[in-house]
Amino acid sequence: MTKLKLGMYCAAGCGGCDISLIDVHEHLLDIVAAADIAFWPAATDFKYSDVEAMPDGEMDVCFINGAIRNTENIEIAKLLRAKSKVLVAYGACSAFGGVPGLANLYPVREVIDRAFSTQSTDPDGQRPSASATHHDGSSAGLPAITGTVHALSDIVNVDYLLPGCAPSSDRVWELCQVIVSGELPPSPAIVGATKKCVCDDCRLPKQGTRVSKFVRSHEIIAEDGRCLLEQGVVCMGPATRSGCGGQCPDALMPCRGCYGPAGDSLDVGAAMVSVLGTLVDSEDEDVIRQAISQVVDPAGTFYCFTLPTSILGRARTTDPAEEVRS
Amino acid sequence: MTVPTFEPRILGMLCTWCSYSGADGAGQARTAYPPNVEVVRVMCTGRVDPAFVISALADGMDGVLICGCHPGDCHYINGNCKAAGRMTALSAMLDQLGIERERVRLEWVSASESTRYAELIEEMTEQVRELGPLSWGTAHASKEAM
């Protein structure tokens, strides 16, 4: 039997997804027995030129993790799409934009100012740019930042989304087994997750009680054996797809929504707004409004992993020229 | 040549029990008010999914006006209280995304308040006109293929 050829690439990600693939532990040996690694910069010494030299469709399955943040991400996403039969958006950043996607709350100039002109960085105003040069005048070859952070599916056709930050190692191993068996579901599809929400897997029982105020998870020691939302902690479980097995609420930490919107819903923010609106234990409009307005940073909380693929996609920009496109 | 003035498009979602009757009353009384609000009748403000509001703004509306029964008068006991909670959270969230709070409003209009309905439409139309077009679809084509 010919071995499969697998690839893994990290775009604008943290490297956690690369680790999550290694986190299948001894099963990695089973994967390597059935498949050759054709490209995986985090683990093997392949260059972009090696991928460019491949015939189209050479790789059976390629995983791409990380969001699309610069022109290099776009270029490599297109290259890997051409060289792969099956392309998987691996992890929340690739599938929904992820935590890097929160930069869409700000104009890109503000993001760059924050990164390069605060007290913690060089004071001379030097900025990385596509036209930056080495001391000898040759091009440094830096990619340009895009005006907006994108999910992989905004750039190329994606066959499967594997959500999670990072995808849970059980789901990764299950997916690898399905790939080796050749029994992938019809694409496009979400794999390694169910259609239900995290509450469906959560072990903490709901009692149907409502709350008088909302708190952040660090402000209370949550009581075990009780739904976190009913304790006033903003838990994203009702709006989030299950697949993780409810790991965060199991440890009494609120769900942060890394598996993306549950079911057929498009927008986690809308779903969470819906949930919170019904939770306050009062029929008095002012009391309700006062309680809800205690929720800190609603956009950043609700869209923690999904802003680029939400209905609005980003905060309003006053300068459309900021939209750098390839 | 006259300079074209901006005519805002506002989506109105009116609860069938109170506000839709109020709007009907304004029509029957032949009260004049701006034609900028395009009305959808809903069973209750509690049925208005925040995704409806977000989608309307993303698809070209300049504002959204939701009207329902006064607190305590809801046909379904407390649907309007749920709407009040939701719109509080939604306004705060949209504020962070650069959408002014005046563009999305929840107001109480009873069946007998047809004059108030007309005044409300006038006030909101002028407020949104002042803010200018939202133009989300054209100015923020963040999802367009690269």
- Please provide the count of β strands of chain A: 8
| Helix residue percentage of chain B | 40-55%
Cα radius of gyration of chain B in angstroms: 16 Å
The interface involving the most residues is between: A-B, 49 and 36 residues
Strand order within the widest beta sheet of chain B: 2-1-3-4
Low-confidence stretches of chain A: none
Q: Please indicate the percent range of residues of chain B in DSSP E strands (runs of 2 or more).
A: 15-25%
The biggest beta sheet of chain B reads: 4 strands, parallel
The number of helices of chain A is 12
The proportion of residues in beta strands of chain A is 5-15%
Sequence of secondary-structure elements of chain B: EHEHEHEHH
Mean pLDDT level of chain A: 92
Query: How would you classify the helix and strand content of chain A by structural class?
Result: alpha/beta
Major β-sheet annotation of chain A: 6 strands, parallel
End-to-end separation of chain B: 39 Å
Strand order of the largest sheet of chain A: 2-1-3-5-7-8
What would you call the shape of chain A? globular
**Assembly state (oligomeric):** heterodimer
**Global morphology of chain B:** globular
Could you explain how this protein is built, in words?
Helix content of chain A is about 30%, strand content about 10%. Chain A has helices at about 15-20, 25-35, 50, 70-85, 90-95, 110-115, 170-180, 200, 245-250, 270-275, 285-290, 300, and strands at about 5-10, 35-40, 60-65, 70, 85-90, 145-150, 160, 190. In chain A, the strands form 2 sheets. In chain A, strands 2-1-3-5-7-8 form a 6-stranded parallel beta sheet, sandwiched between helices. A two-stranded antiparallel sheet of chain A has the order 4-6. The longest helix of chain A has 13 residues, at about 70-85. Chain A is globular and about 65 Å long. Chain B is α/β, with parallel strands linked by helices. Helices cover about 40% and strands about 15% of the residues of chain B. A 4-stranded parallel beta sheet of chain B has the order 2-1-3-4, sandwiched between helices. In chain B, strand 1 (about 10-15), helix 1 (about 20-30) and strand 2 form a beta-alpha-beta unit. In chain B, helix 1 (about 20-30) crosses helix 4. In chain B, about 50% of the residues are buried. Chains A and B meet through helix 10, helix 11 and helix 12 of A and helix 2 and helix 3 of B.
